[in-house]
Amino acid sequence: MISRIAIEVTVRRTGAAPTPDFFWDDRRTVVGPAYSRDGGARVADVVSIRVSALPAGRVSAGRLRLVAFMAIAVFMIAGPAAEQVFGVRTALLRSWTMFSAIGLNLIDASFEIRRPGGALFPLDRFKMLGASRNGRLKRIESRDELASVIKRLCTAAGQGADIRVRARQATRSGWQTVHTDAENACAD
């Protein structure tokens, strides 16, 4: 790595007038060797050689920052890639999760009512119960709340109504079916 090593030969003249500010310690770079008039080197000149390369084993701060950034970036990418690409789940490399437990135990329910002709039609629980869409019926958070909504819908639909409910609940392992539309929910 000779190209990385810059050797500067500097000469300091003892007793000489100070050099301009852009030279450090009145040192200046000499292009050629400093000779006296008689052809020999001046004894009063002090020659020092500075090597601007870093000693072996020492890394610059910029390199350390780059290595740290790259290590963090690889760690961030390896987590999701390990699970999504390779199917590996480890505690060390966690997969990326946008939301955690936001909708846990939330129930997604759809209601249908059977008309006298036998056809099923979607049932709007907000209209049927005369409730606001931003009110309490917006979120059904437990099985007890679902049973309460079903009971209120059956009461509002009248005696002998056939309401089918399809409901599923969010769990950590995925959606779990809570209620199927195989039977009349008002028959209970």
Notes on the protein architecture:
The chain is α+β, with helices and mostly antiparallel strands. The chain contains 3 helices and 7 strands; from the N terminus they run E-E-E-H-E-E-H-H-E-E. The chain has helices at 61-84, 125-129, 143-157; strands spanning 7-12, 28-29, 46-51, 107-114, 120-123, 163-171, 174-179. The strands form 2 sheets. A 4-stranded antiparallel β-sheet has the order 5-4-6-7. A 3-stranded antiparallel β-sheet has the order 2-1-3, with no helix packed on it. The longest helix is centred in the middle third of the chain and has 24 residues, at 61-84. The termini are far apart. Mean pLDDT is 77; it is low at 1-24.
Please, what is the oligomeric state? single chain
The beta-strand count equals 7
Low-confidence stretches: 1-24
Q: Please tell me the overall pLDDT.
A: 77
- Based on Cα principal axes, name the global outline: elongated
| Helix percentage | 10-25%
- Report the portion of residues in β strands: 15-25%
**H/E order of the elements?**
EEEHEEHHEE
Distance between the termini: 86 Å
Order of strands, widest sheet: 5-4-6-7
For the biggest sheet, the summary is:
4 strands, antiparallel
Computed structural class: alpha+beta
Radius of gyration: 41 Å
Number of helices: 3
